[in-house]
Amino acid sequence: MSDDVRSGPDPQDDALRLRRRSLIVRDCLLVALLGLPTLVWYGLWRFAGTSLVTAAAAALLTGMLAVLAAVPIKRVRAQLLGLALLAVSVSAAALTGEARDYFVPGILVDSAYAAVLFGSALVRRPLIGVVLKAVAGRWLFRPPGSARAHMLLTLLWATRFLVEAAVMTVLYVHGDVDLLLAVRLAMRAPLQIVCAAITVAVLTRDALRTGRTARESR
């Protein structure tokens, strides 16, 4: 076999890159589906003048439909978790009669995520690595990414949740619901997509490098 043939594109590398693009597209669609019920809730309450109870019911119905829409992109579990958070959020606003309380559960969840991720990094067991190793052990494959990459990715996600929780807490105290929603939509989707893209890119690059090294050593 000639050197030109050996140096050509590797089908495995192409497959990994295609999978990376597919994952990013799915995450973008998931973010859109997760955000839709919130827009319905806000639109009915702010512009249609409905009660927070009616807006809550409409948002939950939208969330259930979003779960069905998540089936083709294989993100049902994430959508169900989003539906659970939505149910708590709209209930909080409806029970207190304060629209801004819709954002309290999200702030608490983001704070908890940040605390757990930073805590795992502090004890030198970055959560990203722990999860990847658990999945790898179940499916019998080598977990992608080095220990350093796992640590950096864990800190990346921890910072992402901490920043959103801190900003939303300040805005919650300020009490402007319109600003709360605008900032949440402006921050959550971009932060989620960027962090997901970085994570997939780092892990895919490591998998490609490991695969090439293994093939060259044969």
Question: What's the number of helices?
Answer: 8
What is the terminal-to-terminal distance? 15 Å
Query: What is the H/E string?
Result: HHHHHHHH
Total count of domains: 1
Shape: globular
Number of DSSP strand runs: 0
Q: What share of the residues does DSSP label as strand, in percent?
A: under 5%
Average per-residue pLDDT, rounded, comes to: 86
Uncertain runs: 1-6
How much helix, percentage-wise, in residues?
Answer: over 70%
Radius of gyration: 21 Å
Sheet of most strands: none
Structural class, judged by helices and strands? mainly alpha
Notes on the protein architecture:
- By secondary structure, this protein is an all-alpha fold.
- It has one domain (11-216).
- Helix content is 82%, strand content 0%.
- It has helices at residues 3-6, 11-46, 52-69, 76-96, 104-122, 127-139, 147-174, 177-216.
- Helix 2 packs parallel to helix 4 (76-96) and helix 5 (104-122) runs antiparallel to helix 7 (147-174).
- The longest helix is centred in the C-terminal third of the chain and has 40 residues, at 177-216.
- It is globular.
- The two termini are 15 Å apart.
